[in-house]
Every structure is written in C-alpha cells, then in structure tokens.
Prior knowledge:
Number of helices: 3
Radius of gyration: 33 Å
Largest sheet: 6 strands, mixed
Helix content: under 10%
Amino acid sequence: MKINIIKLFTCILVFSIIKTTAQVGFFIPNPAQPLHIDAGKDDGSTPDATKISNDIVVTSTGQLGVGLLNPVTKVDLRSSSNERIIGLGSNTQSPTTAGGGAIRYNSSGFLEYSDGEQWIALPLTPPTKALVNANKSSAQSIPSAASTVITGWAETVDLGAGTGGDFDPSSGIFKAPRDGFYLVSFSITLSNGNIPKNTFIETAIESSQSSNNIPVFKTINSYPAFQAGAVSNYISGNCNAIFNLKKDDTIKFSVRHNIGSARNTLNDSKLNNLSISEL
Length: 279
C-alpha cells in the first residue's frame, strides 16, 4: 500500500500546529512570533521565564531566539537558562572555505576564527598553573624496614585548578588538575639517634601514572662504615623528579630506612618540605 507523503504531512500539521494570522505555533495556542515552538509544551496562557526557556522563535526579520521570545540579534541565546552557551566542534575546513568570521574549536584546546585566509587563535587567558609548597614540623614515626608515606603537612602555597586544593596536606597526596608536566621536590630529616653501619635512608616520590613515566623516583643515602664504633646524628634525604601526569593522577611522598628502630621526623619545618610546580 502506497502512502501519500503530502497527505501524511498535512495530517501531522493538523494535529501539531495551530495557525493564527501570519503566525505558526507548534504546541502553543498563541505564538509570539511568526514561528514559535514550545518544545516543553508547558507555556500555557501565562508563560514565565522558566517555561519560555525551552521555546524557540523566529521573527519576521529572520532573527532566531532560543529560550527567549524577542531576539535582538541574528541568533540570540540570552535567556534565564544557565545553559545559554554554544558548543563548537573541530573541523578540517580551510579558512577560505569556512569564510571570514567562522569560529571553530581546535582539538589542542582553544578557539580559532577565520579571517578568510587563515585560522587565527583567539587570545587566551591560561589557567593558573598548579603550585604547591608545604612543610612539616610535627613528629611522625618512621618504622625500620618499611616504606611510610609522609602525612600531616602544613601548606604555605596551593595554587591552581581555579581555587587550589590540588594537594591534601593531611594525606600528603597531590592530584593533578590537568594533563601536563610537573616538577616535584621532596626533602625530609629524621631526628637525632644512633646510626648503625651498613644502613641507609631512602626518600621516594611515587606517581600513579606509569605510562610514559618512571613511576617512582628514589634517592638513597647510605652509611656503610664509620671509624668510630657508633655514630649518633640526624639522617636526611631528598628527591627530585619530573612527571608527565594525566588529570587526576596522584603523587605521594615516602621514606624508608633500615637503621633497626623507628625514628621520628624532625620537628623542624625548615628541614622537611616539598614543592610541586606545573610546567
């Protein structure tokens, strides 16, 4: 059985369109413009800003309004809705083909416009790069022959990701706010005590990102022998690294030693510190 497309379309119009003089309304009895679509079917006789936010209109001069009834530009999105944005995608058109005034999204993360001859990057205000400085003046017990994450830091700087907060001083874990390279430095000092022969202290910076990275950077200070039978002193270590991180990858800082007994971190903030700089 053949279906007459014209008749079918006419039936659809009868049930979904109400006509008034020189105006067409979809799902609305009183269109406000020559073409008015109430996508939410909720305007009623007295629509408010929330109901109008799902409307689309076209004026007699060809101005398109999305979420408002009286557009004043060729395309007007300035409604009460908090979704009044335009989504632009990337494309492979030449600037000549796209024409002057065209805008596109570059997959590298910025917008470009065409002047008819070339794609030109729009001026950017770069995001604040992550910068963390912290120190530690409280004692933390570091047992022998076990790797211990250093916690309980005191931040002096934490910038980036809009309001900062990339570093959790309580857990001692940093979370990358975006993809990029990060320069990391870490130093720690343990309190005074006996240092046996053939012992070491290891400081480590560990990343959760193992792809394209050395996942753990370590520095070892060793004490192989002494002229005296026993030596008592502070022991310390430091480590530096550059990581290629993805967004939400983490970094943590740890210490391990084998001096035979637990040793506290020295309660001196000048000798226990870390820094993280997004490059």
